[in-house]
Amino acid sequence: MEPQLETPEHRAADGDGNGSGAGDGTRGADGNGGGVSRRAAVGLLGTAGVGAVAAPLLAAGPAAADSPAAPAASPAFLPSPDAAGAPPVQGLHLTFGRDPSTQMVVSWITDGPVKRPRVLYGTLGHGLGSGATARTRTYRDGVSGRTVYVHHALLTGLRPGSDYLYLVSHDGATPDSGTFKTAPRGRQPLTFTSFGDQSAPQVTWSAAGVATLDANSTPATKDIVTGVETVAPLFHLLNGDLCYANLDVDRVRTWNNFFTNNTRSARFRPWMPAAGNHEIENGNGPIGLGAYQTYFELPSTETDAELAGLYYTFTAGSVRVIVLQNDDVCLQDGGDVYVNGYSGGRQLAFLERELKAARADREVDWVVVAMHQVMISSSDANGADLGLREKYGPLFDRYGVDLVVCGHEHNYERSLAVRGVVGGSETLTPNPVSTRTDDIDTGLGTVHMVLGGGGVSGTTNQSFFKDGTAKVITAVADSRPAGGKRAATYVREQAVWTGVRDLDHPYGFAAFTVDPGRFPGDTTRLHVTYYNVNKPNGELSVFERFTLHRKRSDGRR
């Protein structure tokens, strides 16, 4: 786990977060063998049914014998008589540990301090034979003064590509539960999904004390979670501007509503976030990202507590994902605080180090970057950012990044494969290296996807330029006006890089399925489907399908 934040607003306590292995993974009724499928387990272990199944699962005997590291006597989740009235488990969610094939982090929120936060976990075949103690992090919201408690338990010793179930609790609380599947090790098929700019479905109190609908909420904020669960990916990439709490009167309530909504999916599969500009909140941590850093335990290697969790990487199968926090390098002033340059170059050094390692790794074929602000956009909204093009562009080209997934613009757009820049362009216009939009060789160039239709209001699909141009932020003012943002300077360019845009539908997400190929040096493919989440009932429809392909790295000499 990354170092715990030790600032006054981020305190760690309650154990070391380490758990023991849980024995053999069971294979469900999904074509992988006998037993109970993950979807059946969802029904068994839903919150309403946890009491009925907890006792027989806890009593399952073989776990201790099959898992040498399992505790001799697993503690049952029995409320302590003197702990009645403990805060309930809220917002249960998962993230990968540093090795997604053997580690998972289980996290939940409470309104107050608790005793003995813990997780029991195991397999459907062997019961809940292993335990992990959770570590508690807190932050004090800079507006309301309320303290939020988030508990993170690292489960270790898991088996690659295996199904697990778990129960979480603390003294005096009713247990909550979920299931998950670890990532495969090596070249195996897998599916992941992605979108950004979600917000939270909620009614809140206005400053005047009357009930009001949050300005950023739409029904699609909820519908899109159902859509992700319909696809049932191994993991989900959430590309920034998670819930827009910084714009709300009650920021703590907004975060809580965000997790209450997303736990319908995030308790069953890791949701791996990138922090966007709207995660930067006045008074919450040294650079405004303290709430985000508290809610998520992420596989960061950063040793500076102020930067922990803001950029990180993980590998699932043959896919290396690198997650970035773009306010460090972009020019646009978009958060409560302008924090350009906050890492002092550490994030860029991290990016180059990880890209170089990924391309040298013969087990990694696909390099995917997840971030918030964009390097391409033909919408008259935020626009592309020259800061990102200057800092990231040469690295993406040098190390052959295959795919970049973003948010920020509240629409769907994807680029042609691009590499280098158009000669003489003031805006460092990405240079298209192919006109193909159906089957794209990412060995030639990088494909950028803007996936900002996660549910937030203020959609921008109606704002696409129709004359083949785009706008790019090339500078910002030196200071902010009172209550405003630094004014941006825009320069227009020819959008020679644009590939496909969705002018008609504001909401949707992308699903990516890896075909790993069959032999060293074979062609591996990433099959992409972009789904619309449609009004008024949230049903899914396919907007487009296309394929990315490249040669496997194990064919190199």
**Neighbour order of strands in the largest sheet:** 13-12-9-27-28-29-22
Beta-strand residue percentage: 25-35%
Q: What characterizes the major β-sheet?
A: 7 strands, mixed
- Amino-to-carboxy terminus distance: 35 Å
| Spans where pLDDT lies below 50 across 5 or more residues | 1-77
Summarize the structure.
By secondary structure, the protein is α+β, with helices and mostly antiparallel strands. The protein has 8 helices and 29 strands.
Task: Summarize the structure in words.
This protein is α+β, with helices and mostly antiparallel strands and 557 residues long. The protein contains eight helices and 29 strands. A seven-stranded mixed sheet has the order 13-12-9-27-28-29-22. Strands 14-15-16-18-23-19-26 form a seven-stranded mixed sheet, with helices on one face. Helix 7 packs parallel to helix 8. The longest helix is centred in the middle third of the chain and has 16 residues. It starts with 37 loop residues before the first helix and ends in a 6-residue tail after the last strand. The N terminus is likely disordered.
Which features does this protein show?
single chain, 29 strands, 557 residues, globular, 7-stranded mixed β-sheet
Which secondary structure elements does this structure contain, and how are they paired or packed?
Layout: H1 38-44, H2 50-59, H3 62-66, E1 90-96, E2 104-110, E3 118-123, E4 127-133, E5 135-140, E6 147-155, E7 163-169, E8 176-181, E9 190-195, E10 203-205, E11 211-213, H4 220-231, E12 235-239, H5 251-266, E13 271-274, H6 290-295, E14 312-316, E15 319-323, H7 346-360, E16 366-370, E17 384-385, H8 386-398, E18 403-406, E19 412-415, E20 418-421, E21 430-432, E22 439-441, E23 447-451, E24 469-476, E25 488-494, E26 498-501, E27 508-515, E28 523-533, E29 540-551
Parallel strand pairs: 9-12, 12-13, 15-16, 16-18, 17-24, 18-23, 22-29
Antiparallel strand pairs: 1-2, 2-6, 3-4, 3-7, 5-6, 7-8, 9-27, 10-11, 14-15, 19-23, 19-26, 20-21, 24-25, 27-28, 28-29
